[in-house]
Amino acid sequence: MKLKTYSLATDLLQAFRSFHDPTIIIAFDSGSFVDVNDAWLETSGYTRDDIRNSTVIELGMHSWDEFRRIVREIEARGYIQEWEVSFAGKSGDAHTYRATFVVITLQEKTCLLAIYRDISQRQQMERSLLESATMFTKAFHCNPDLMAISSLQDGRYVDINDAFVEITGYTREETIGRTVFDIDIWASNEDRIRLIQVLEETGRVRNHEINLRLKSGEIRTFLLSAETVSINGVPHFINSSKDITERIQNRKAIQLEKERFAKAFNASPVIMAISTMRGGRLIDVNDNFCVFFGADRKDLLGRTAVDFGFRLEAADYIELKRAILSSASVRDHEVRYRDPQGRLRQALYSCERIDIDGETCLINIFADMTKQRELEKEMHRLDRLNLVGEMAASIGHEIRNPMTTVRGYLQ
């Protein structure tokens, strides 16, 4: 086949040296360098002296077998486009190029004009995109939370992850290609309308609480986050939804327990307070505590009972402190104390350690026993008086018996 060649005029030869892409002229039969442009010198790191009397084979741009394939391809087609080749410059850094080869005549010699377009950066971007897509796919399908991609307008599902199938009970076949209305998954369409409005305005939603209806009919609560994306020019949104049903139920149960405790705490007939173990700072007090100290709750919190004139007797304080430090709870420990008026009183003290926001605290229960102890003393005194009465009656009885006998003899 007769080669179609292009004659390169002198002025065009000068222009080729200013080409943006690395460009070389080599002998058609041997691959030896005829000329190179400045872009090639800059990219490869070689000088014109380096390439004098050298070939593309010697510099490692092409192997001899590859060069022969290029020649055969040109002989068959007349030119080559998009020939991918990798070679390293003088520094050893390899780049990938897409080469175009055209046969030219230069000074009556048949040559190849080779233009190399560096695609290393594009390939790196393609690899990065592929890696990102792979990571997204893995993250999407391995995420333990429900994930789905659906159209913004009609809610038609494009993809769902395994967690979606497991949590909702709907299979991929039952979901993909159908809309949220087809499977009736939203417990409230008004909630979806508000969500779409936010997405259209801001492009994203974070931690939006929604209710979804599962295939079984059960309605569960989810925390949804979503981002809008464009697929083939059509607005879609990708969402991730965490099932928080148990969390809400636990939160309600905890709130109920708190309310029950608060009612029992404030309705207790004994003095109760919650204080820090270190320092004794009051965190909460019940109504009877306020009555005992004659102060409002807001004035008591953050301070200590000592600030209001409450004092344990020294010996009882030492013994009680030892008991609290050695055990997580204390039961019915009898103490003597001074009330805010300075009167000495008696009480039974109990406490339980609890943790509040990482700080060790005490639930203190203080049952005043002063009146009971006074009553017990009175009862003990009355018991003794009763015993004396019984002894007097017995003695009188013993005295009366002999006197009766004497009276009989005298008569």
Please characterize this protein's 3D structure.
The chain has helices spanning 10-16, 38-44, 48-51, 64-77, 120-142, 162-168, 172-175, 180-183, 189-202, 245-267, 287-293, 297-300, 314-326, 370-410, and strands at 6-7, 23-27, 33-36, 79-88, 94-106, 109-118, 146-151, 157-160, 204-213, 219-231, 234-243, 271-276, 282-285, 311-312, 329-338, 344-356, 359-368. Strands 1, 2, 3, 4, 5 and 6 form a six-stranded mixed β-sheet that branches. The protein starts with 5 loop residues before the first strand and ends with a helix. The protein has 14 helices and 17 strands. The model has no long low-confidence stretch (mean pLDDT 85). The relative contact order is 0.05. It is elongated and about 155 Å long.
Structure at a glance:
The chain is of the alpha+beta class and 411 residues long. It is built from 14 helices and 17 strands. The chain has helices spanning 10-16, 38-44, 48-51, 64-77, 120-142, 162-168, 172-175, 180-183, 189-202, 245-267, 287-293, 297-300, 314-326, 370-410; strands spanning 6-7, 23-27, 33-36, 79-88, 94-106, 109-118, 146-151, 157-160, 204-213, 219-231, 234-243, 271-276, 282-285, 311-312, 329-338, 344-356, 359-368.
List keywords for this structure.
411 residues; 6-stranded antiparallel β-sheet; single chain; 14 helices; alpha+beta; 6-stranded mixed β-sheet; elongated
